[in-house]
Each structure stands twice: as C-alpha cells, then as structure tokens.
Amino acid sequence: MKELVEVIAKSLVDHPEEVVVTETENDKAIVVELKVAADDMGKVIGKQGRVAKSIRTVVKAAASRDDKKVIVDIQ
C-alpha cells in the first residue's frame, strides 16, 4: 500500500522529492501516513477533500483482497 500511495502523491504534487510515506501495521489495520510539502497540501487534499477521498478509495480497493482495513492519514 505504501508504494501505491507514494506513486499517487508524487504524481499530484509540485515537489515530489518531499513526499514521505510511512506504513505501520496493527492487528487488523494498516496505517499509511502521507507527508507532503506545505505548498502541496492543497493539491493532495483537493476541493472539499475530494482528492484525499479518492486516494483513500483507491487504496481501500487495492487492500480488499488482503481482508485488511487501511487508514490513509494525510499530515
């Protein structure tokens, strides 16, 4: 999941070198934290959170085959 979020985020932002994605796994959940430059935060979130919601939807669809819950946290 980490690679998927990283590829999506790097394609959206102006400063792809500042994209940092970390992944931690709990019992039944995978937490993916996405950090981008302050200038790029609006591009990752989008108007009314539409881009962020789309990223979460794509990641959840990719994780459905593993029967794990995925939480994408944008910081």
UniProtKB/TrEMBL annotation:
InterPro entries registered for this protein in UniProt: KH_dom-like_a/b, KH_sf_prok-type, KhpA
Key words of the record: Cell shape, Cell wall biogenesis/degradation, Chaperone, Cytoplasm, RNA-binding
Localization: Cytoplasm
SUPFAM superfamilies: Prokaryotic type KH domain (KH-domain type II)
A GO CC annotation given for this chain: cytoplasm
GO biological process: cell wall organization; peptidoglycan biosynthetic process; regulation of cell shape
Record carries keyword Cell wall biogenesis/degradation: yes
Keyword Translocase assigned: no
Extent of the signal sequence: none
GO molecular function: RNA binding
Task performed by this protein: A probable RNA chaperone. Forms a complex with KhpB which binds to cellular RNA and controls its expression. Plays a role in peptidoglycan (PG) homeostasis and cell length regulation.
PANTHER family named among the record's database cross-references: RNA-BINDING PROTEIN KHPA, UPF0109 PROTEIN SCO5592
Summary of subunit composition and partner proteins: Forms a complex with KhpB.
Sequence similarity: Belongs to the KhpA RNA-binding protein family.
Protein name: RNA-binding protein KhpA
Species of the source: Acetivibrio ethanolgignens
